[in-house]
Amino acid sequence: VWSLGYTPVTGDEDIDIGGQRLRLIFAPGRTDGHMALLHANTHSLIVGDHCVGQGSATLDIRSGGNMSEYFKTTYKFLELSPHALIPMHGRVNVWPKQMLCGYLKNRRSREANIVKVIEGGAKSLFDIIAYVYSDVDRRVWIAASSNVRLHVDHLAQQHKLPKAMTILL
């Protein structure tokens, strides 16, 4: 029997689907309501769009994306020590620690480059993107703009931006 009813969830609930137990995990960052699922039997983590098969995830600034929360969620996933990561795009990853640490390293590198270009005189979002994403196909720069804005917010929260910064975002 299928139910079309709505059941609100907050994370940390267990659900049973066809005899398979899944733990719901609140995973904000990419969006403010992002969730992941941990399969109990295989200890595989379905990460949704938090990780993707190739490249890096785009956080959605219009749907509550938050870089600080993204970092926290990535660390939470590391603490779970899953045996595999299952992204919504790309292949299953059987080296989850390597993938998650790679995501953290990439985000830290992007933030270091953002600070560098701002200290070098960048005055606009485009200036930052052109420098930080110079090695990336320009067709993804629009999507990258969301990540850059969220990185700048994250750096501001940590008081890591130049004091006289008057950048136009």
UniProtKB/TrEMBL annotation:
<dbReference type="Pfam" id="PF17778">
    <property type="entry name" value="WHD_BLACT"/>
</dbReference>
<dbReference type="InterPro" id="IPR041516">
    <property type="entry name" value="LACTB2_WH"/>
</dbReference>
<dbReference type="InterPro" id="IPR036388">
    <property type="entry name" value="WH-like_DNA-bd_sf"/>
</dbReference>
<dbReference type="InterPro" id="IPR050662">
    <property type="entry name" value="Sec-metab_biosynth-thioest"/>
</dbReference>
<protein>
    <recommendedName>
        <fullName>LACTB2 winged helix domain-containing protein</fullName>
    </recommendedName>
</protein>
<feature type="domain" description="LACTB2 winged helix">
    <location>
        <begin position="127"/>
        <end position="160"/>
    </location>
</feature>
<dbReference type="InterPro" id="IPR036866">
    <property type="entry name" value="RibonucZ/Hydroxyglut_hydro"/>
</dbReference>
